[in-house]
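Hey,
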Amino acid sequence: MSERNRRAFLIGIFGAVGVFAVLFFLVGGRSVLGSLSGADPTLVAATFAFGLCWLLAWSLMLRTVLATLGVDVPLAKSFLIYAGAVFANNVTPFGQAGGEPVAALLISKVSRARYETGFAGIASVDVLNVVPSLSLVLVSVGYYATNFAVGDRLGTAVGSALASVFGIAVLLLLAWRYRHVLVEWTAGAAAAVVDRFGTDQGDPADLEGEIRERSSRFFDHVERVATSRERLATVLGLSLLGWLFQGAALVAAFAAVGHDVPVYVVLFAIPLGNLAGVAPLPGGLGGIEAAFVALLVPTTGVAAPAVTAAVLIYRGAIYWMPVLIGGGSVTAFGVRSLA
């Protein structure tokens, strides 16, 4: 790991520790530890089993998308590739920016596909995951609102989530609408930098042509995914299944500490809580846990220490387990992009 990346990682870790320290102080750390020590081992194991099912569902998404692009990846390897992407997300500040390049490298190593093909595959998976998550938020919040009063905190969270998703959707649509202009601008800007600063990247004209060609292929791959209706429906179904497995994991985590929570609450809490992953912390570590606690305490009526304990068990399955599996796969495949 380079000195710059090591410094950013350490700053992120110290930030996460600080967030956890404040969270434990506010909710009562001793009570949280008491809830964790009394958790039902069988239900904790069920939480991790549901976490594995989530990883499998979304790795099948990736495999299906890659098949649309003409890349055949065995099921076991697709699981390890996706786990590697989640690992990179979880150890990189701002999350997704770190996972997609690593996954693209893994795909290219395993399947001999071009890098931009792998990148188009994993980027398509991440974008398509937004559709079911937004649907779950709208349906579950709508049900909650018809049966309970929506507090200011929840209303603000939902409004912020919808605004963020809408903003991202607009940017993606603009990028797609003006993709040819974007390709030309990117290629020209890179060539201009090479020409001005005299880097060792070769002839500026050759570099401009290569970037233009690779960018055009990337958008062609994305278009193939979007226009394959049968496989697109399959991918969206697998995405929804993955979100439901995450919801089942959180329900099992609450059951492990002795509490039943409504499914519709966890289904909107998970996508909303994950928005805290944009914080400059490794995979949103600390920030996501705090966001979950802030959302789940007022909506479930469960005491804050028990909610925190359940969230920590859940995050063990969704955050730490993929770190172990994905870290091993990244090492085994010899990818050093995090170095």
